Amino acid sequence: MEAGVSKSVLYKCWLNYDRGAKLSKENGEILSRIVTEKESEIISSAVKELEMAAQNIIGRKPEVLKETNLPHVFLGIDKDEKSDLIDNGFSIKKDKGVVNILGKDENGILYGVFEFLRQIYTGKNIDNINIVDNPKNMLRMINHWDNMSGDIERGYAGQSIFYKDNCVIDKMDRIEDYARLAASIFINGIVINNVNVHQYETKLISCEYLPKVKKIADVFRKYGIKLYLSINFAAPMELGGLNTADPLDAEVKAWWKKTAENIYRSIPDFGGFLVKADSEFRPGPFTYGRDHADGANMLGEALEPFGGIVIWRCFVYNCLLDWRDRTKDRARAAYDNFKPLDGKFKDNVILQVKNGPMDFQIREPISPLFGAMPNTNEIAEFEITQEYTGQQKHLCYLVPLWKETLDFDTLVEGKGSTVSEIVNGNLFKRKYGGVAAVSNIGNDESWTGHPLAQANFYGYGRMIWDTTLSAEEIAKEWVELTFGVFEGEDKIVSMLMQSRDIYEEYTCPLGIGWMVNPNHHYGPSVDGYEYAAWGTYHYADFRSLGVDRTVKTGTGYTAEYAKPIADMYENVETCPEELLLFFHNMEYKYVLKSGKTIIQHIYDTHFEGVERVYDLKEKWLSLKGKIDDEIFDAVLDRLEIQIKDSKEWRDVVNSYFYRKTGIQDEHKRKIY
Ligand code: GCV
Fold this sequence. Notes:
Elements: H1 9-12, H2 25-31, E1 33-36, H3 41-57, E2 63-65, E3 72-77, E4 90-95, E5 98-103, H4 106-121, E6 130-133, E7 139-143, E8 163-164, E9 167-168, H5 173-184, E10 189-191, H6 199-202, H7 210-222, E11 226-231, H8 235-238, H9 250-266, E12 272-275, H10 292-303, E13 309-313, H11 333-338, E14 349-354, E15 377-383, H12 399-407, H13 419-423, E16 434-438, H14 454-465, H15 471-483, H16 489-506, E17 544-545, H17 563-570, H18 580-583, E18 586-587, H19 598-621, H20 629-661
Parallel strand pairs: 1-2, 1-3, 3-5, 7-10, 7-16, 10-11, 11-12, 12-13, 13-14, 14-15, 15-16
Antiparallel strand pairs: 4-5, 4-6, 8-9, 17-18
The structure holds 4-O-methyl-alpha-D-glucopyranuronic acid (GCV).
């Protein structure tokens, strides 16, 4: 069975060629022949893709030829030395009955084919097609938080597609379908195991498990994707029997070198290691009085001879922080831990920085670490899986949130120092640049649980390839590919575009965050978050709420930004209101620019948020009969859940603040 064929519409996602597309007779003729100048695994994936689409569009499989004078699609490497293409880039140009799809490399050819089909299936006129497209980010990564038990940490779409019962699964067809989906949005690196590396996953780098890992790498390779592994910093002890994991110990160094050799013998194009160290009880260099540069560089040395990289996460903080001490601040942690180490990391070490200083809340400022380390490779980390954003039961299209991060101007080198320009490596002329994100994929039929959450996976890839695309353009593209070009598509686009604001309205006001039930993080509990066990992290009392992060009277966090940004956040008047309570402790009676007090804003947004979820449902109902029943029903089920849950959020949050303050809702609505 060919990858992706004969499965449901939910499964086929945005690559459902059965949807049909129209081509002129002339273009149909072109699609009936494919000429390739060389054979390779990646090129044969590209050919397969054209074949699948052609069968639907022109009703037959194209001939695959070495050469012809008849109309055809040509797939090849761009040999023009003056061409504008960079690695992974491609061009698609029509010239006298031939569509030339040229890549700078084989990935480029494959991406060119996916783009060509995207153009066709979104109804673009390809008569004079002329596209040159290059990646804005060279590392375009997905991080899986999959455990070998089959469970996925923060996974909301079933079990792992890689593991079951502490083994790598034998059948590779679903993994191949996944690689194809990922390649279609130009992903070129995938970490296949959780950054919290437990007993079994520690062994993935061992000779016993490598043959299984190799099988996955072999599948990924066909789609131009490199495989990476998360490693356990204490592996030399847990796996190697050493009595230390000290990064400066000679035996430890030798052990990692040997391990790297074994890995590359099995997987010559292995990407490298992803590391979570000294955070949330994971082992790391701190145990030995070493710093993160010592730890990362030791691994960097081991991978260097093979061209591998170390991606070291900056999500390092003390999760047992005593929040009663108001001078301590978790938001400072990444910056405080890493900024002093700027310039100390090897060239093949990259720091991976979460978009916000805390942890993937629906609203956070941008991490001040972006741009704070000009002599260090930095990439951004996003969370596609909806841990704090509705767990794929609620609709929450996250591309607008991510775009906000990438477009944010840090001003560290004057105007134009956007996060995008920092993480793509341009601003500081860094060797490596890119973006990573935590997958929302599981073995659910729809891959993502909520069918509309596919837009987040799709949108992530499209956005990091081309950071100039707007969230709305990406949404439209996804809708057209998933549902076909149809009247009514704008309704789905508008549902997606509003969804983040709606979610924010009925959950966490003005940047305060964290009001979730402990551990699983689903549903409202204003004081519930597990790592705030010492008290409340939002400091709400009868008079005020919010965290004072100013230099003048608070934790001093604002000073971690470039001066103009620091000043903006420091001052209540200039601080963007959606982040007001992130930066300031404010009285409930403080009047916002809308003319409403903070307490009234909390009440109003929570009522309004629920109303807007009802509107989402109305919009969706109006699409009945216009889209596949399977998707229609699955989304409707989730919208019902969202209505019920948003009411719970509204009631829990409003009543909490009503009881704290005793202040009545101006509109005298019932607060439970
Ligand atoms: C993989 C948060 C999540 C954890 C996750 C961690 C991380 O704390 O709740 O599940 O662990 O972030 O990013 O390492």
